[in-house]
Every structure is written in structure tokens, then in C-alpha cells.
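Deviations from the work plan: none for this task. Representative record:
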Amino acid sequence: MVDNLEQRQEIMGKIDQDINYINDEIQKVDKIKTKNTAPFLFILLLFSLAMLYSANNRTASTNIFSWGSLVVCGLLFIIFIFILREKEKKFKPIKKLVDELLIKMIGLLNPNLKFSQEDYVKQSIFYRSGLYTTAIRDYSGDNLIWGKLGQTNVMMSHIRAIKYEDRYYTQTIFNGIFMVAEFNKRFKGKTLVLPDIAGQSFGNIIGNWIQEINPRQEELVKLEDVEFEKKFVVYSADQIEARYILSPAIMEKLLYINEKFNGIAVSFVDNRVFIAFPSLEAYNFSIPYTQLIDKEVIWSKYEYLKNMIDIAEVITSELNLNNCIWTDMEEIMEEQQYNQTKNSSKEGEILKGSFVYITFFQAMFFSVLYGITACVVSVFLKKMAEASNNYLIENICNKGITSFIACLIAGLCIIPATNFAIRIFGFKHRIADYTAKKLSLYLLIIPTFGLLLGVCLNFDFISTILPFIVFAILALYFAARNNLMKCVEIDYKIHEPKE
Amino acid sequence: MILLIIIGIITFFLILIYNSLILKRNQVKNSFSSIDVYLKKRYDLIPNLVSVVKGYMDYEKSVLKIITDLRQRGINSNVSEDETIDIDRDLTKNIRSLWGTVENYPDLKANQQFLKLQAALNDIEDQISAARRSYNASVNEYNNAVQMFPMNIIAGLFGMKPERYFELESTEEKQVPQYRY
């Protein structure tokens, strides 16, 4: 513990100056932002309230006023989005500074390694490992570390691969650390070492039977190490080659590694070893560049990266990869590079978006959008009621049920609408579905609860909307506090992945 | 009629079992021939090794002679399987002892050609050991089949005997290195 503290002081001392510098820069940009947009938001809210009020009074003059304010709201909304884009541009130099800081941190850990917070091991490489054969719909990652560790070229990053069960349910195929390294032996075929789920859950005989009817091209390899056979199932294109790679010593070491990082899957393809650690806690740990940098966060990031490098070191030393006489990692690095250039020219299957950091401020933007949509729908319904000349419908409108329905529709529309708006105005990202679900839950259920309360207490239209606003702000506050609006980095797909 | 059906079923199972036994025996033969391939590769390297080492080593001439003799016996085309197993075991043992003595010859250890040969031989050694283990796995499967009921009756009928394993004689090979974590 003392050792840890000393180490921390030493490391933090080296990067303290950089952090302070970045924080100063962020504060400068922050000031510009709030000065510009705060009155703007206020006017927008005022107009929407005016619109709501006028919609509630049925005279000719207010009718014009309500339509007029609708147009003004729309215009203001467009300007608002432009301001948001402008702000993102201002954060660009800060992003560079943060990146440099992180690279410096990696340099302190190991000077031979390179690092990029936004990059990750490419999907084609992930597929090439042969460990996961299902078609992936959402593939993302972060914290790419690559370079020479000892004498071995390694590349590793956090990867999150998701497939869609149907339109609404997703299934995570892999979420963890994925690593590629050169192997110290040469081989031609593909050898897979997978966790033995069948054997562990059905026992030896039935498990063995299940293993033999495998859907893969590779044949089942039965190895003589009993302990190894209990934990893993091995498939290979070549029986002898599988045993050549999995020598008794390697098997022993893989068992040890498996004990340490539970549930690993390993494959040996093209003279490389691919290791997937699904059990490693691999949350999306990115340093935001729109918020002041917390030293606590920086330290945990440092520890996170150190942990990753430690894993790589365990692998290279345990598998004796440093004895490698062959070097052909260049090829895979080229593939990585190639993909990156391909992406930037928008021809690849994935176009990588830049960061979106949904701050509390940006969340307000969503709520305004939400409110405006609610207003528009309620105005529309109001007009319908006027046209119908039906007492009952009018009565319901005036009781505020209209606003309830409108807000419900708005709540359902909010995420698609924001995504649509973001896409139209050229941001290269959308809100990740899983975050959006939680976000819409907060934004929908809590304000709707407030509305219902208002309706039950028999308030009129304006007084029903008041609890709605109060509850919406509360919902946003809780959403922000629970980190639901944390950094979301998303791949924006132009084409379907080939598979 | 019923008797006929019973006989039919029994013959069907007999054929099935017989075929599976033959399949397994052929698998054993097949994996043995793949060991042969690697053994030949090693035989090809031995003359080079001997010629490089000869210049440096004065005292270990006897080891070199044993290795050369074993090679001569090995490349002979009419060696039996059992003999091949023995030759391979002895050769592995002797090459290992040769590596042990290399420590006494710093000049030899600095020779690039020797180092390359050593790396190549070690690699082939690994491949042979993989092939051996593969052979043992198929022998194990075959032996299980031959000795288990009811296959053992049919195997006895057709004179199929359990095959011999490739024994791992040298202690280094048996022992998995101990790692301290």
C-alpha cells in the first residue's frame, strides 16, 4: 500500500503540470460555451411556454401568435444545433492535449509501447482469430496499446462486439480485452483452444459426444493432459500441428493463465496467438476532454493501462514468446493501418465517429427537444379538437390529457428524433442504443409520473406542464449522476458488415 | 423369420464394429507415417551437425559416432515400427546429451551455423514430439477399442492386438517444467 502510494506520487508528479495546463484550457472553452448558450436556452423555453399558453386560448390573435412562435422555436432550434457543432470544434485542440497526456503515461509504463485511446483492434483481425464466428452488428472498442514488449510485437485493446437478436434485444458476444501477439513457432493451420463448456456442464462422456459434432471446419483434438482437457476443448486443422503448438509446457502455462484470468479463449492462426479475456472488467474507460480532468480518474486510468500491460507481460513471458525468431507482425500492423486509411476515406465498412460526450448541458438540449415535440403535438391535437366541435374531446383537451398524450409520444420519439437530428446535422455518431434505452426510461417515466400527478389533481393545462418540467429536470439530474450520459463512442456503419 | 432378423442385426453390428476397428488401426498407421516424415527430416540434418561439431569437439567423439550410427540404422528402409521407436528414443537421448556438452565449448557456442542447426534441430524435435503425442493419442483410441467389451471379441477374432505406445523415455521430456508463480 505504501509502495503504491509512493509510486502514485512519483507518477502523478511527472504529469501534474500537463493536467493543470489542460484544465486551464478547458476552463477557457467552458466560459465561451456557457456565455453563448445560456440566454439562448432561456429564450427557447420562454417561447415554448408562450406557445403552450396561446394554444390553450381560443381567439384569433393568439392563434396567429401560436403559429408564429412555432416557427421561431424551429429556427432557434436549428441555430442551437449549429452552436453545438461550433462548440465541438473548439474542443478539438484539447482532445489532442489529452491524447498526448495519455501517450506520456504509457511512455512512463513502457517506452516501447504506443497508445491510442480511441482506436482498437480492427474487426477483420478479430474475425481472423476464428474465436467468434457469429455475425457482429456492433463492433467497438478503445484503449489500443501496441508495440514491442520485450522482443515480441503485441497489440491489445478493449473490444465490445454485439449482435442483434432481433430489433430490440442485443446480445453481447464479447466484451473484454483482446490481444494479438507473435507466436514463437511457425504453423500453417488454425488451432482453437476454447473453454470446454460442454464438458463442464454435461460431464465427460456426453460432453465429448457434443464436442465431436462441432459445426467448425476444424477437427476435435484430444490431448493427453487431463487437467487441460477438463478446462478446454481444442479444435485444429491438423492433429500434429495442434500438438506441436500445444506442447506440454504451453498447456501447463495456458492452464495457469486461465486460472488467473478466468475463461480465456485462445487461437493460433497465421503464426500469431490471439487471446480473448472475456472476464476482464473492460468498461469503456475513456478520459473525456470536455470536462475538467480529475486526478483521481487519471490515476485509475493509469492503473487500468498498467493492468493491461501486465497482462501482456504475463502472456509473453509465460508463453515464452520472446524466444521468437520470426517477425511478421508488420503484416498485421499494415492491415491495421490500411483499415484506418480506408475508414478515413469513407469506403470501409465502418466509419469511426469522433467522441460525443453527453454532458448535463447537452442533456438539457434533449429535454428541450422533448418539450418542444410535446408542444407541437399538443398544439396539433388542440387544433383537431377545435375542428371537431365535439364537447367531450374539447373537454379532454382542456383537462390536460392532451399534453399527457403529447409528452408520451414525445418521449417515444425522443431518441429516434435526436438521432435523426444528429445525423441530419452531420455529427458522425448516434446515441448507443443501450444508453438511449436507459436515458429514455429516465426522461419518459419520471416526467410522465409528474404529469399524471398534475392531471389527477385536476390542474389546468399550464399547471400540468409545470410539474412536468420540474420532474424532467430532476430526471436529468439523476441520469447525469448515475453516469448514464457518460462518454459514448459509437461506430457509425455505412454498410452492413460482410459475413 | 425372427431368427433371421436377429442374425441380420448381429451381422450388421459386427460389420459396424469391425469397420470402426479398421478405421482406428489405419489412423494409428497414418500417424506413425507422419512421425516418419519428421524423423527423416532430422536424419537429413544430422550429417551437417556432425561436420560442424567435429572440428570443435575432441572428447565427445563417441557421442557423435553413436548419433551417426543411429542415423545409418534409421534411414535403412526396412526397419520395423518397433525398431523405429527405439532408434528415435536413443537418438533423442544422445542429441540431448550432446547439447549438454556444448557448454564446455565456448567457440562452438559462438558459431552461427551451429546455432542455426541447433535451432532447427530443436524445432524438429518439437515437431517429432507433437507427432509422437498424436500417434499415442490414436494408439490410445485404438487400444481402448480393442480392449473394451464387446469390441474385444471381434478384435480377438481377427487377431488385432493392442499397439505399442511411443514411450517418452528421457526424464526431461516426461517432466513438465515447474514454474513458480
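Helices of chain B lie at 2-54, 61-75, 81-102, 106-110, 112-147, 151-157, 171-174.
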